[in-house]
Design goal:
The chain is of the alpha+beta class and 411 residues long. It is 53% helix and 11% strand. Helix 11 (246-264) runs antiparallel to helix 12. Bound molecules: adenosine-5'-triphosphate (ATP) and magnesium ion.
Length: 411
């Protein structure tokens, strides 16, 4: 049923080595699900009854990682595999060695080994709980995952209300998988998302940042955003946008479209660019009045906006300075006289800032030509650039530079 040509040779060899050492070993999770749904599997996870120490002994190039959830990374020059030991998922409070909870009862270590049957039950969705042995080519399916792949539906393992309470991030995962696979979401899961979505506010901002990247940078960002909004979950990933203004939604959708296209074309992508775009309407709202930007307020609001976003998703430091650069460059792109355009062009973030300018113009349906001006300016050599700037002077750019031409955005 699964064509082994779709599976990494390295992953197959690791399964084979574990089995030759008399352990059970399977490919599991996303790679099996994707291979069965006609999507190119990207990363390969392995589940085994060998403990992390036993796995570590078999593979020279490996290391044990994680505290709460100990795993082994097995790697070669170009690939890295996660090998996880079957877990029981039963929170046996009587076993203090393996299940450690903090004062609020949150599980901070979860290493009670179990059997394959037990390991299935702790996974989130039936389509994610298929175990494939590439040697015998058999699939172990204890939860009707195959049937649900055939029916194109995301179904919870166990009562989704309880499972989403246990881990609220599963709501985001259900949305992401349904778009990635083009599967329906089972009704009880939809109810659980509505009922338990608010628990996402308890998840650490570091984990939420990981989810932010998975949900918006996987090539399905726009679709995911729309579905998140329909469940009212977008507010757990991005600080709330000003309402009533069409532009705020348009700039977000345009930026997500732009990122999705880049993923499709295998161009580089960064969470920094997307965050700059997603937070832009909030920043503008904080510093504008009656359709005009207050520049001092603009500069003063930047850190506040980033701090508020930090409360939801961590924003690693390298990204926060990148985001501020892109924002400040939006102002600089407006001054097109003297030596300023040359300076702006040399800025290491020019390219990203220019891309964002185009996104903004598309969203605001802005035809004031600033983007085109910069497109021309980049194309020309130095002698022509001088004349482009001279023309600019003649046209007297004063008014648009005073208001920074944000008419449509501030409507
Ligand atoms: P993708 O890699 O496309 O995001 P995936 O299904 O491989 O999808 P991972 O986050 O890599 O997702 O997790 C691997 C497997 O581990 C999942 O298929 C699922 O079986 C299990 N899993 C991951 N996260 C959770 C969770 N929060 N709750 C329960 N099971 C989970
Ligand atoms: Mg995976």
């Amino acid at each position: 049923m699964i064509d082994n040509k779709k599976i990494s040779k390295f992953a197959i060899s690791v399964v084979d080595d574990l089995q030759k050492n008399n352990f059970q070993a399977y490919l599991v999770g996303g790679c099996v699900r994707d291979a069965l749904s006609g999507i190119e599997p990207k990363d390969f996870d392995i589940a085994t009854n060998a403990t992390p120490e036993q796995v570590r002994k078999i593979f020279k190039a490996s290391r044990i990682i994680g505290k709460r959830f100990r795993l082994v990374h097995v790697f070669n020059r170009s690939e890295l595999l996660e090998v996880a030991t079957f877990r029981s998922g039963d929170n046996d409070k009587n076993d203090p060695d393996n299940l450690i909870t903090d004062s609020s009862g949150k599980i901070i270590r979860d290493n009670i080994w179990g059997t394959l049957e037990q390991d299935c039950k702790r996974r989130d969705f039936t389509v994610n709980a298929l175990y494939y042995c590439p040697i015998s080519k058999k699939i172990e399916d204890y939860n009707n995952g195959l049937k649900h792949i055939h029916k194109k539906i995301i179904v919870s393992i166990g009562d989704p209300q309880r499972r989403f309470e246990e881990d609220p991030v599963r709501s985001l995962r259900a949305i992401r998988f349904s778009n990635k696979l083009n599967f329906k979401i089972d009704n009880p899961i939809k109810d659980a998302i509505y009922d338990k979505g608010h628990l996402l506010s308890n998840i650490s901002n570091a984990r939420m940042f990981d989810e932010f990247c998975k949900i918006f940078l996987n090539g399905m960002g726009e679709k995911n955003f729309i579905k998140l909004c329909s469940f009212n979950l977008n507010k757990y990933l991005i600080i709330s946008r000003p309402e009533k203004n069409d532009f705020s939604n348009d700039v977000i959708l345009q930026a997500l479209k732009n990122t999705d296209d880049r993923v499709k074309n295998q161009q580089s992508i960064t969470p920094g660019f997307l965050m700059a775009a997603l937070l832009w309407p909030t920043l503008l709202e904080k510093c504008s009045r009656d359709g005009e930007i207050n520049i001092r307020k603009f500069f003063r609001s930047m850190d506040g906006v980033l701090r508020n976003q930090q409360k939801l998703t961590a924003v690693p430091r390298k990204f926060s300075s990148y985001i501020k650069d892109i924002w400040i460059l939006q102002l600089k792109l407006h001054s097109r006289i003297g030596s300023q355009p040359y300076k702006t062009l040399r800025h290491p973030r020019f390219r990203a800032a220019y891309d964002f300018l185009l996104v903004r113009e598309r969203a605001a349906n802005d035809k004031n030509g600033l983007g085109k001006w910069w497109t021309d300016f980049q194309k020309n050599d130095d002698s022509l650039r001088g004349s482009i700037i001279a023309q600019m002077k003649e046209k007297n750019d004063e008014e648009s530079s005073k208001k920074f031409g944000f008419y449509n955005e501030l409507r």
